[in-house]
Structures are given as structure tokens and as C-alpha cells.
Design goal:
two-stranded antiparallel sheet
């Protein structure tokens, strides 16, 4: 049994504010990818989908002369740091298990290397799944953040994802028995 499901996270006003700023359609699609990748990489789909849904809640919009400036973003952005902190606080506030909230926050922190010095990180499986899911939905110039989705479709996809996560977790419990 999960402490908090995706719908509870999704409908929270803080989540709504930041997902709509960073790209609601992108967040949902990344969560869907993460669910698929979680099974392949033997990662808890609950943690993977939550981290993926919230992976960009730390975004700040970088504009120059009224236009989105992707290079300015790439050079100066630290959204993963802000997002990890924001997601952790939100998850604890709404009743998520503290250990799970930390794992989710760290996966958000490491979903991109755009703010890190050059080099290679050895990611844990959950962190790798969230990073792969984000990469799977990226478009050049950050265009993935500007795709739109109607609220009714968004909540339906979140509910479908919750059902899928519950099914995957139930089948794993059966496998262990």
C-alpha cells in the first residue's frame, strides 16, 4: 500500500503551480516513461513515477528581451536542486514515507547533469530510470516544456498511471510470495 498516490500529489496546489510552469504534458509523459522503464530496470514504479512527475518542479523560466533563451537556461539553471528540495518538502507535507521522499528527491536532484561539472555520475537504478525517462521525452531547445494538455486528459492519465503502478506493485508482491 502506498502512503500517497500520484493523483494526491498531482492535485496539490503547489504541484499544479510548478508543473504548469515547467510543462504539465512533459511531466506526465516522463512519469509514463518512468513506469515502463522501472519494470525493465527492477525499480519500484511508485518511486519512479513520483520522481518523474515532479522532476522539473524547480524550473525557473529564463528570458532575454521577452524571449525564452535556451542557452541562458543551459548556462545558469539549477532547477534540479530547487526541484529536489521543493518535491521533498511537498511529499513530507502530504504524508509520504520519509525514506521514500528522500529517494524521490535525490532522483530529482540527479535527473540531469546540466548544472554539474563535466564528468560521469554513477547513478543508482531509480536515478537512472528518471534520467532515462526525461531524456526519452526531450525535444531540442526545451520545446518539450511547451507542449500542452487539457486538465481532463491530464487527470485521467494520472489516474491510469496510478492503476498501473498499483497493478505492478501487486504482481511483485505475488511474485515474492
Amino acid at each position: 500500500m502506498r502512503n500517497v498516490n500520484l493523483e494526491e500529489i498531482f492535485i496539490h496546489p503547489i504541484t499544479q503551480k510548478y508543473l504548469k510552469r515547467s510543462g504539465l504534458a512533459h511531466a506526465i509523459r516522463v512519469a509514463e516513461y518512468a513506469c515502463s522503464f522501472a519494470t525493465k530496470h527492477q525499480v519500484d514504479p511508485d518511486l519512479a513515477t513520483k520522481a518523474a512527475l515532479l522532476h522539473d518542479v524547480g524550473h525557473y523560466t529564463w528570458y532575454r528581451d521577452g524571449e525564452w533563451d535556451y542557452e541562458l537556461y543551459r548556462e545558469n539553471d539549477i532547477h534540479a536542486i530547487k526541484g529536489a528540495s521543493r518535491a521533498h518538502k511537498l511529499l513530507i507535507r502530504i504524508g509520504e514515507d520519509r525514506h521514500a521522499a528522500k529517494e524521490i528527491a535525490v532522483a530529482i536532484l540527479l535527473h540531469t547533469d546540466s548544472y554539474l561539472p563535466e564528468g560521469h555520475l554513477n547513478l543508482k537504478p531509480l536515478q537512472h530510470v528518471v534520467s532515462l525517462a526525461d531524456e526519452a521525452d526531450e525535444e531540442s531547445g526545451g520545446k518539450h516544456h511547451y507542449r500542452t494538455i487539457h486538465d481532463n486528459e491530464a487527470i485521467e492519465r494520472i489516474r491510469n498511471l496510478d492503476r498501473k503502478v498499483d497493478q505492478l506493485r501487486s504482481s511483485k508482491q505475488v511474485d515474492r510470495a
